[in-house]
Amino acid sequence: MTDRKIRVLVAKPGLDGHDRGAKVVARALRDAGMEVIYTGLRQTPEMIAEAALQEDVDAVGLSILSGAHMALVPAILDLLKANGQEHVKVFIGGIIPEEDIPPLLAMGVAGVYGPGASTETIIQDIRQAVVGSQG
Amino acid sequence: MELAESLLAGNRLALARALSQVENDTSEGRQLLSALFPYTGRAHLIGVTGAPGTGKSSLVNQLARFFRQPPGGGKSSSVAIIAVDPSSPFTGGALLGDRIRMRDLAGDPGVFIRSMASRGALGGLAAAASGVALVFDAAGFEIILIETVGAGQAEVDIARLAHTTLVVETPGLGDDIQAIKAGLLEIADILVINKADQPGLEKAERALKSMLELAPSRTNGWAPPICCTIATQGIGLADLVDAIHRHRLHLDQTGEWQQRERDRLRAEMELILHAALIDRWRETIPEADYQAVLAALLERRLSPRQAVEKLLNGGLP
Hints:
The structure holds two protein chains of two kinds. Chain A has helices at 20-31, 45-54, 69-82, 101-107, 119-134, and strands spanning 7-11, 35-38, 59-64, 89-94, 111-113. Chain A contains five helices and five strands, in the order E-H-E-H-E-H-E-H-E-H. By secondary structure, chain A is of the alpha/beta class. The two termini of chain A are 12 Å apart. In chain A, helix 2 packs parallel to helix 3 (69-82). Chain A has one domain (7-134): Cobalamin-binding domain (Rossmann fold), CATH 3.40.50. In chain A, strands 2-1-3-4-5 form a five-stranded parallel beta sheet, sandwiched between helices. By secondary structure, chain B is of the alpha/beta class. Chain B has three domains: 1-37, no CATH class; 40-254, 3-Layer(aba) Sandwich (Rossmann fold); 266-312, no CATH class. Chain B has a seven-stranded parallel beta sheet with strand order 4-2-5-1-6-7-8, sandwiched between helices. Chain B is globular. The interface between A and B is medium-sized, with 31 and 28 residues.
């Protein structure tokens, strides 16, 4: 299907108090023609993996400001894999220290975006990762 | 089919993928629907519709909790939820946010929530919603809750799909003239006044009551009850679920269930038949003839109705 919609789950794991960044990205992806499933604040890794499964998404965008990314991200990646969804591309946005980026990418994260990243770049990267992997 | 088999065996990933195939109307999705059809016809489809912001998602959340764990210790039912939100008419994108209000249901294997974008359909549902409901039905879900796009007055497709339709209002929405207009209110099997702690409840109840008194009874003597709820606090849910059970019983006892199934399946078959007949007939008309009639139409030499007559008679002389 050439006009198949890209479905993206935008989720906020952990205990962050606000979701402004996540909403900006969700809105930008919507305006780029994607179907964005938005789950709101304070999601556990289990809730995120379950939503990704039920919604059969192509990509998951995680917004993490709390600093807990090195614990949350591997947990979510493991759960996705356990559910048979290793094909789902995972993107991370938020406050991620420079030195944590290489290990995150090594775990299988498709992209990491800090404050000031352009939504254009995020949109292009998601498109490329999803469409590229469909062959 | 492999996907159909593992779906019927209870595999949730297979179910999720099957839903996508059906939603995208792929050839695999079409085959799936045919393969699964013999396993359907058991689920109770409950539609929840109403204006944006009336609390449909919160109500669906509470209904699902109730069906999962009836407070009186009654039988627990598995619940699938189809939550439809609008697609942007400009970009085709959509923000599907109904899950935000359904987080209470996370972690329960007896619940499966699927968000759908309306993808251009105007009746308050998505074109593939009936197919998606059918897949859930085959997968063994006993209750299927279908939440429509925030609907105004004319998005009434849900009544054709669901066995029981809930129309959700809130206090302070319009006067008694709004209530007697045709459309949304007419399709209600059960009227819900949600946010019942807001001012204007009595007035809203009175307006709806007088509307119901004026309306001729539609289906074999069922009088749509009015249920008042405060969904975010779970208040009034017991009465609402009781009304749903009574409606189900009514459908069974009066033969209305069969009648609705018959109407729905017939409409669905005829829809497919229309498309198939047009496709087949188009193959018999040379493209040049079709274009010639189209040109005559554009030049106002033929009206649309005359153009169709010409085409059915084999094109322009």
